[in-house]
Design brief:
By secondary structure, the protein is an alpha/beta fold. It is 34% helix and 22% strand. The chain has two domains: 3-254, Rossmann fold, CATH 3.40.50; 261-370, CBS-domain (Roll), CATH 3.10.580.10. The radius of gyration is 26 Å and the shape is elongated.
């Protein structure tokens, strides 16, 4: 079998029971593929953090087997194991009396890297997480905002280029605006580095936004469902999962459902040099899209502005809203709401080439189709 097809992390029949009889995790089987980000979610005390900490042996399992990149973690020196795994926690844990650059270079120094190599790696990682090293390298953690400290924490976890990252509610203590920016930045970083990540969060919306897959736990550390965000939201595997993701899971599904060309409406298309008489002859809807000969969308015209003589170009109005085809239905709906528009134009990614429009009705049909409820 191709080694690349083997999961980076495999938990086989893993359990954690404490001396008082408390069951934290019960006979857990879970695979995390290489380069995949799996979010662990569930109610408080359901074993999410315990599961994650068993991977780097901060907590020892009482039964089962955990394999990391082919190695049984119980047979690996725990200190060496942890140097192969990046670890990011809610409170960051930066050393307050060390400068940012030195914090990031902690593990490389422990691995014996020389000062020049460690500093170059720290600068590279600060740049990657959106912190200019010339501005932040020599600052102390107390001189940073909470969001900036979290970025430094991520940079430090990546410093020795570990194949695996464990992240325990890393953004939960950040204010909502900074958290949104951090999530965006983290997605950008993950697209660049493609680490295998186990990410614990209590926030389902965060899991839906960040995760390639979501693992839903219930009390007692029992895994109820492990699937893509779209599948968890669209096809809950049990009443517990359905209750956990909530009655508004259809709205959450907007965030993980892309725009499909088959869902686009095609109102009449006019050319800028069409005469108003020609436009009136073909326009049987309240508006028409004005498209250049090369396919670029110039704007739109309302049917009530086509009286008299002249050409369409003289009556073009600016688009109320537009999104790229690679956007989600949530982005499309947000554009419509923000601009109080009855439709949103959909453009080819990276260009202004017109593809069609989404209306509230077609957006609803797209969501139903994605859940298997529509045609």
């Amino acid at each position: 079998m191709d080694a690349s097809a083997e999961p980076m992390i495999r938990l086989e029949g893993v359990s954690k029971r404490y001396a008082d009889g408390t069951v934290a995790v019960e006979h857990l089987d879970l695979d995390v593929a290489r380069g995949e980000l799996v979010c662990l979610v569930g109610p408080s005390g359901c074993g999410k953090t315990t599961t994650m900490k068993m991977v780097n042996r901060l907590i020892e399992p009482t039964a089962g087997r955990i394999v990391l990149d082919g190695d049984d973690v119980t047979r690996v020196d725990p200190v060496e194991l942890r140097r192969r795994i990046g670890y990011v926690i809610q409170q960051v844990g930066l050393f307050p009396h060390q400068k940012v650059g030195d914090n990031v270079a902690t593990v490389p120094r422990l691995l014996g890297w020389d000062r020049a190599r460690s500093r170059a790696r720290a600068d590279e990682l600060l740049e990657l997480v959106g912190l200019d090293p010339s501005l932040y390298r020599d600052r102390y953690p107390s001189q940073l905002s909470g969001g900036q400290r979290q970025r430094v924490g991520v940079a430090r976890a990546l410093a020795a280029d570990p194949p695996v990252l464990l992240m325990d509610e890393p953004f939960s203590a950040i204010d909502p605006i900074a958290r949104d920016r951090l999530q965006q930045e983290f997605l950008r970083v993950q697209a660049a580095v493609r680490k295998t990540i186990v990410f614990v969060t209590h926030d389902l919306d965060e899991a839906v936004r960040l995760g390639d897959r979501i693992a839903v736990f219930r009390q007692g550390g029992v895994l109820e469902q492990h699937d893509t965000p779209a599948a968890v939201l669209g096809s809950p595997a049990s009443p517990f999962v359905a209750d956990f993701v909530g009655a508004d899971r259809g709205l959450r599904r907007l965030a993980v459902t892309g725009i499909d060309p088959v869902d686009l409406d095609k109102p009449p298309v006019l050319a800028p040099d069409d005469t108003l008489a020609e436009a009136r002859a073909v326009l049987d809807t309240p508006f028409g899209l004005v498209v250049e000969p090369d396919g670029r969308l110039r704007g739109y015209v309302s049917a009530d502005r086509l009286a008299g003589d002249g050409v369409v170009a003289d009556h073009v109005q600016r688009l109320p809203a537009a999104v790229s085809l690679d956007a989600t239905l949530k982005t499309a709906m947000a554009e419509m709401l923000q601009h109080d528009a009855g439709w949103v134009a959909v453009l080819e990614p990276g260009s202004d080439r017109y593809l069609g429009v989404l209306t509230p009705m077609s957006l609803h049909a797209a969501l139903r189709r994605s859940t298997g409820l529509g045609a």
